[in-house]
Write a structure and sequence with these properties.
The protein is an alpha/beta fold and about 240 residues long. The chain contains nine helices and ten strands. The chain has helices at about 40-50, 70-75, 90-100, 105-120, 135-150, 165-180, 190-200, 215-220, 225-235; strands spanning about 5-10, 15-25, 30-35, 55-60, 65, 75-80, 155-160, 185-190, 200-205, 210-215.
Length: about 240
């Protein structure tokens, strides 16, 4: 397993945001982490990346416990948070150089990787423009480029198509499918089309707990995805009843 959550729990005072979550994502799989807003997706991802410490449980990336072997885990991990922080006065080129140098990448290797992620994320036209002048789509591509810069084995992406237009969404999904050929990906979303377009597997979280774990076909076998989404988030309501 390249991504492992074992009994992960995170409490904020009396509120439990993530409640005894356990799952694993094997090498080479693209897993969609699906659920409504406020379900616990982002908190779980922050636990898996070491951004937050769990109240209980263990998070591992490529076999490394992110609490006790954080640097080793970080070396194998690329993380794209939703609306991830970018240094607005930098250009994409200077941003990538900064992150590469911070990771201790050798100059020749860094130049090679900047060329590779620039091509993959289609950043060429804006490579030397200030980030604050870029569209949301290009800023998202900058975030993806920095997450891929060190060639991680594992990618964790939180709502990577949020706020993008249909053409930008199409480009990001195409990139995810291509990356999924060689990397293990956990993709947080609440958009059902993302599941159909990119995922090998669906892990559905609601109110901090896993309520479904299976393939997209197994989920579709229950009915139309929007109806299944509703049933999983409102299990006490009769099928077909909409609020």
């Amino acid at each position: 397993m390249m991504i492992q959550a074992e009994n992960l729990t995170r409490q904020f005072g009396e509120f439990t945001a993530v409640d005894d979550v356990t799952f694993g994502v094997p090498a080479g799989q693209v897993a969609a982490f699906l659920g409504p807003n406020g379900a616990g997706k982002t908190t779980t991802m922050r636990l898996l990346t070491g951004f937050l410490a769990p109240t209980r449980g263990t998070a591992r990336v490529a076999g490394f416990d992110v609490s006790t072997h954080r640097l080793e885990a970080a070396g194998r991990l690329g993380y794209l948070p939703e609306n991830g922080p970018l240094y607005q006065d930098m250009t994409p080129l200077s941003l990538l150089r900064f992150f590469g140098e911070a990771r201790g990448m050798a100059p020749a290797r860094l130049r090679e990787r900047i060329e590779a992620v620039t091509a993959l994320c289609s950043l060429g036209p804006v490579l030397e423009k200030s980030i604050y002048k870029l569209s949301k789509g290009y800023r998202q591509r900058c975030g993806m480029a920095q997450a891929l810069l060190h060639e991680p084995d594992v990618l964790i992406m939180d709502e990577p198509t949020s706020g993008l237009d249909p053409n930008q969404i199409r480009d990001v999904r195409k990139a995810i499918r291509e990356l999924g050929k060689t990397k293990t990906i956990l993709l947080s979303t609440h958009i059902l089309q993302e599941v159909e377009a990119t995922a090998d597997r669906v892990i559905f979280i609601h109110a901090g707990r896993i309520v479904f774990d299976g393939t997209p076909k197994e989920m579709q076998a229950r009915g139309p995805l929007d109806e299944v989404f509703h049933q999983l988030t409102h299990p006490s309501e009769p099928a077909g009843q909409i609020r």
